[in-house]
Design goal:
- The protein is α+β, with helices and mostly antiparallel strands and about 130 residues long.
- The protein has a domain at about 40-110: SepF-like protein (Translation Initiation Factor IF3, 2-Layer Sandwich), CATH 3.30.110.
- About 35% of the residues lie in helices and about 15% in strands.
- It has 4 helices and 4 strands, in the order H-H-E-H-E-H-E-E.
- The chain has helices spanning about 1-10, 10-25, 50-60, 75-90; strands spanning about 40-45, 65, 95-100, 100-105.
- Strands 1-2-4-3 form a 4-stranded mixed β-sheet, covered by helices on one side.
- Helix 1 (about 1-10) packs antiparallel against helix 2 and helix 3 (about 50-60) runs parallel beside helix 4.
- The longest helix is centred in the middle third of the chain and has 17 residues, at about 75-90.
- The relative contact order is 0.12.
Length: about 130
């Protein structure tokens, strides 16, 4: 626009306009950081067949807490084996939270643990540790 004013108007008007543009400060919007919400999915399966839904959530990179109290021991063991394979393929981890409650976390989720587990004492992982009564 300044070339137009220089051509048809005075040089002073063009300079004033250019100074106004240079000195103008853009309006600032309030900074509000977007919080990425994490979702933890809770499952209380009653059959092995529900393991597929749990695995689908793990594949979607969602951490899953699984309560196996309502399953019989054989089905629960099969479910844990299946989900352990799924989480292994995703480079994730599994943590025992309570007697029949497990946290399956994909690699994108960090688990910060402040308690010490008695069953986690320098021995290799064995699925019989998950259900010692079997």
């Amino acid at each position: 626009m300044s070339w137009f004013k220089r051509f048809f108007g005075s040089q002073e008007e063009a300079e004033e306009e250019e100074e106004g543009v240079e000195n103008a400060q853009p309006e600032r919007e309030a900074f509000t950081p977007e919080r990425k919400q994490s979702t933890i999915v809770l499952f209380e399966p009653t059959s092995f067949e529900e393991g597929r839904k749990i695995a689908d959530n793990l594949k979607a990179r969602k951490p899953v807490v699984v309560n196996l109290e309502k399953m019989d021991h054989d089905a629960a063991r099969r479910c844990i084996d299946f989900l352990s394979g799924t989480i292994y393929a995703l480079n994730g981890s599994v943590e025992k939270i309570a007697e029949s409650v497990f946290l399956f976390a994909p690699s994108s989720v960090n688990i910060e643990e402040t308690r010490r587990k008695s069953w986690d004492q320098e021995k290799p992982f064995d699925s019989s540790d998950l259900f010692p009564e079997l």
